[in-house]
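Morning - cobalt (II) ion inputs below, output right after.
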Amino acid sequence: MTLLDECFAANRRWAAQTVAEDPNFFNRLVNLQSPDLLWIGCSDSRLPPNEIIGRAPGEVFVHRNVANLVEHTDVNCLSVLQYAVEVLHVKHVIVCGHYGCGGVRAAMSTQPLGLIDNWLRHIRDVHLWNREELAAIQDPELRLDRLAELNVEAQVANVCHTTIVQDAWRRGATLTVHGWIYSLRDGLLRDLGMVIEHPDQIPPEYRLVF
Ligand code: CO
């Protein structure tokens, strides 16, 4: 059996097992999804969001890209954010990075990789803004880990600076933005302690007064 045949076989087993355990499962989800969480994470194959936070299908709206970046001109990411906030009314947006991120590693290297260098440029910006702190870390792996954390913090800020999130707050929606980081070594998430839920928490230069 080829790998792709195995995927279809596994899918049939999963669908049958799901119905066996919960006969109404697909009927319930077919017309409605009502996730409370939007997950913005890295494309890395080792971070399946639903699996690592124990959420069933229907419970997490997901956007993933290389190194979990949120760029204010990325129509793809912004469209996911808008749908999640304005249509699904998610309560939490989680930006989740991870230690050992290949995107962060590549952004710290001088080796050219082609088109993706333009994407990873955003992490080079984060590096530049924090160059003193990062330069003081002797161990290169620890420096990468710290840049991965700083990148999450920068992306959380980027989520909060969007018109989408600021407009939701203005409407009085309950919407909290969080920064988490995942360790491939132990499978555990760490909360970076960012809980942003009000425009007063963002710099005035980014604040929009509607
Ligand atoms: Co990554």
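Note: The beta strands are 37-42, 60-65, 92-98, 176-182, 189-196.

O.
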